[in-house]
Amino acid sequence: MSGGHAHHQLYLDRETAIHRLAPQCKIAAVLVFVIAVVATPRETDWPYAVYALALLGVAAVARVPALVVVRRMIVEIPFVIFALLLPIIARGPRVDVLGVSLSANGLESAFILLAKGTLGVVASILLAATTRPRDLLLGLQRLRMPETLVQIMTFMFRYVEVVLAEMTRMRIARESRGFQARHAGHLRVLANSAGALFIRSYERGERVHLAMLSRGYAGRMPVLVDVRSAPSQWAVAALLPLVAVATTAAAWVIR
Amino acid sequence: MTASLLVEELAFAYPDGHQALFGVNLAVQRGERVAVLGPNGAGKTTLVLHLNGILTGGRGTVQVAGLPVVKENLREIRRRVGIVFQDPDDQLFMPSVREDVAFGPANLGMRGPELEERVHEALALVGMAQFADRPPHHLSYGQRRRVAVATVLAMRPEILVLDEPSSNLDPASRRELADILLGLPVTILMVTHDLPYAFQLCPRSVLLDGGVIVADGSTYDLLCDTATMSAHRLELPFGFDPRSVGAPAG
Questions:
Q1: Considering CB atoms only, which of B96, B107, B135 is closest to A216?
Q2: Which residue in chain B is spatially nearest to A3 when comparing CA positions?
Q3: What is the pLDDT of residue A139?
């Protein structure tokens, strides 16, 4: 019995200049961009418009539709809720907005949190939409991320569907015996399932390790694929972080 | 001629005290195909894990083409003994078929065009060369099993050890795998509950039960020996009679 292939991919298959960039260039670019955004002085708000325009430009070149980006921004919701609470719970001078008394500091903090968070999330969405997961890992490897971390992520990428399939089979088995989570008491059953899933995954990990040892694994993964990058690729990828760094610097000077 | 595999007086108890093997003796000559039969809990998996030194520390010795399985030799032993585990999802852990097949030879220090050549050769032997760039989870179960065989063939092993090779395969995949295995120029040791499969592929069978080898001989004779079979919880599938197929020539 084999389930269908789950397609919950973030990657959008396109042929654009940004898709073609070496993954390590794109990862470094997003990282520097996010740092520049976070370093924006808190008294200014115009730089956020510049950052947003820069990201808009990237999305246009990479032909990533706005709707796709917006839909994936769901991951940000917990932060949005926190940001919306800030003006209500923060202390300090109050201002009246539509008859509700809100903290002025809180409003400002909420805006900054939302703006910075959203820019970071959109930049990551664009990175994921233009780079295959496999290439992201190769890029991280190229950027000298510690080998063990890259290995862990590589295995996660390989086994996420195996574990999801196992989870689906367990759910089907539960439901086939009439189980439906209806009240909090049923959490116990779900917790048991989660525990069983953990044990199974752990045992699979041991079997995989055994299979690796059997083929001569001695602690280091052989590097079989490498992603090279030309200086011209770095130059192209540098455009986005350059704009951001220049904007931040300008904001610090003229604040 | 040195035997591909020589197991002498092998005994082993797990750390929890459970004794799984009580003195196993087994010699497999080069080019032989031997089935290891036996009920659940007979010690089959424990035996397999001794062949490439994953489990050690008990009594007795294992030699692969004359080389003893001891710590200093593990690297070469693991090249010589290719184990294909039962669940291909355990065996195929790399992001693509090509990298998975390359994993073993790369660990032996192979690189570049030589490695490419080795990968292609192994995939061609199992008829999977055109799937080299696929991620393993996008293959059918039967295809994954074949790639799993290729991952160890790429190390040009002295002996191929298969753990339940026909499990979970549909009839066509099962037959395709049999055709592939019959065509391989390599010694095969196959652990299985699938008696017709053992009969089709292996002229010789050994029966392991209670941690010792209780029978060793032609697969045909063993399957026809109803007394021995039933004494060790082995049963032929309904409607299958080896006598209707006949003893293999030679």
A1: B107
A2: B140
A3: 94
Q: What is the pLDDT of residue A91?
A: 77
Residue-wise pLDDT for B146-204, tens only, equals: 999 999 999 999 999 999 999 999 999 999 999 999 999 999 999 999 999 999 999 99
Bin B53: left if φ > 0, else alpha if -120 < ψ < 50, else beta: left
Residue A186 DSSP one-character state: G
Contact A40, A198 (CB under 8 A): no
Question: Which token pair is A253?
Answer: 């000077």
Report the residue of B72, B98, B107 to disrupt the A interface, i.e. the one with the largest count of A CBs within 10 Å: B107
* Biggest CA pair distance of chain B: 56
Closest CA–CA distance from residue B93 to any residue of chain A (Å): 7
Contact assessment for residue A184 and residue B47, using Cβ atoms and an 8 Å cutoff: no
> CA torsion sign, B136 to B137 to B140 to B145?
positive
CA distances from residue B17 to A88, B46, B58 in whole angstroms, order as listed? 64, 14, 12
pLDDT in tens, B213-239: 999 999 999 999 999 999 999 999 999
DSSP 8-state secondary structure symbol assigned to residue A219: S
Residues of A in contact with B104 (CB under 8 A): 215-216
pTM for this entry: 0.82
Q: Given the DSSP bridges, would you call strands B159-163 and B59-64 parallel, antiparallel or unpaired?
A: unpaired
Of B75, B93, B99, the CB nearest to A211: B93
